[in-house]
Fold:
Amino acid sequence: MQEGGGSLAGSWAPGVVEARSIADVGAEPVVERLPTGIGEFDRVLGVSPDGVAGIVPGSVILVGGEPGVGKSTLLLQAAAAWATRGTRVLYVSSEESAEQIRLRAERLEVGLPRELYLLAETNLERIAEQARKVRPRVLLVDSVQMVFAPSVESAPGSVSQLRKCGSELVMLSKTTGVSVVLVGHVTKDGQLAGPRLLEHLVDAVLYFEGERMHAGRLVRAVKNRFGATLELGIFQMTGTGLREMSDGPAVAADQARPGSVICPVIHGSRCLLAEIQALTATGFLGAAKRKSSGLDANRLAMIIAVLEQHAGMRLADRDVFAQAVGGLRVIEPAADLSLLLAVAGAERHQSLSPGVCAIGEVGLSGHIGRVTQMDKRLVEASRIGFSKVLVPWDERIEARVGLDLIGVRSVQDALEHLG
Ligand code: TYD
Ligand code: MG
Structure:
C-alpha cells in the first residue's frame, strides 16, 4: 500500500479501490508495521508473520482506560519513541497545552524528537487540517471525548459527537494511510458515554488497566484485526513514566507458602507465570463465602466441589478466597490444578516444595486432564528457575528442557505432593 522508511510521499495519497472477483484477489500482502521499540506495547498492537510488531499503517486503535491510569503517559512515550525512529507523529491533545506536554516529555526523559508534532486543539476540522499539513504517519488524539465536530450541535463527549468524530477520523485514516490512535476515558461503572460506542468502528481496542494505588499496569487487547486478542503488555508506573515488565509480575521459584501455587499461563502469544493464592477461614454452614479475584468464580466453585467429593475435604462451612496475583486474569482451565493445590494447601497448611509448579485441568471426575501449549509453559517455567512440574499423567513425559516432570493422574495423586 505504501513505501516504508521515512518518506511520506506514499501516504496521504487517496487510494482507488475497485471491486474484484475473489479469484483475482492475491494473497494478503505482508503488512508493514511501525514499531515503537517499546516491546510490551508493540506486541499488543500486533505482530506480523515476519516477526515485526507495531501499529499497522492506516489502522485505527482505541486505547481506553480510567482517568489517571496512565494513557497519556504511555502514548507520549510511544509517540516520542516512534518519532525518535523517524516515524512522524502528530500528538493532538484536547486536554493539555503543548507546553504542558513538552514539560511531561522532559519529565519522562523521552527526548524532544523533531518528528514529534504537538497540537492542542479540540475542533475536529482544525485537527484534520493540521494533519493534512503535517502529514504524520501516526496521529494520536488524546482524548477523543473532548474533540468536537462543529457541524454537530451537541456537546463534546456526547453520543452524536463521538460517533461523528470517530467516523471522521476513521475516514481520514482509511483515505490517507495515517494510523490513528484514539484515547477514550472509561469509568468503573461505564458511566461516561464513550469508548464502547467506538469499539465497532476501530480496528483494535486496547484497554489500559491498573489501580491508581498500585504501580502495576496492564494493556490488554480486547479486539484486534491485526493481532491476537488476549495479548498483554505489562508495565510499572514509575517516577519517569511506564517501565516495561516483560517477565510479568515477579514470581520467585524458590519460595513455598501454603495457599500459594505457581502456574504457567498463556496470555496471547506468550506464557507468563501466575501465582494463584487461596485462603480458607471459618465460615457458616450453608452460607460459606467463595470469593475470587482474577479467577473464574465458577471454576473455584467446581474445584471446591471436587475437593469435597474426591479428596474428602470438608469445605462446606469454610470461607474460601482465591486470587491471581499481580492483576493478571487467569481463566484458563490449565490453572485448575494450581488453584486446587492452593485451596487444599491453604486448608491443610501445606505447600508444594520450592521450585515446583503445577499445570493441569481438573475434571469433575477428579481426573487431571491435558492442556494446550504444554511445551511453551514448560520452557517458561524452566527459564524462571523451576525444576519440577506436576503435569497430567497422559502428557508424554520425556525429559524436556531440563525439567523434572511428575505425572499426576487424579486429585489424590496431586495432593500427595503437598507437604
Ligand atoms: P496519565 O497518563 O495522565 O493518565 P490518563 O491519561 O490515563 O488520565 O497519568 C496520570 C498519573 O500517572 C498521575 O496520577 C501521575 C502518574 N504519573 C507517574 O506516576 N509517573 C509519571 O512519570 C507520570 C508522567 C505520571
Ligand atoms: Mg490523559
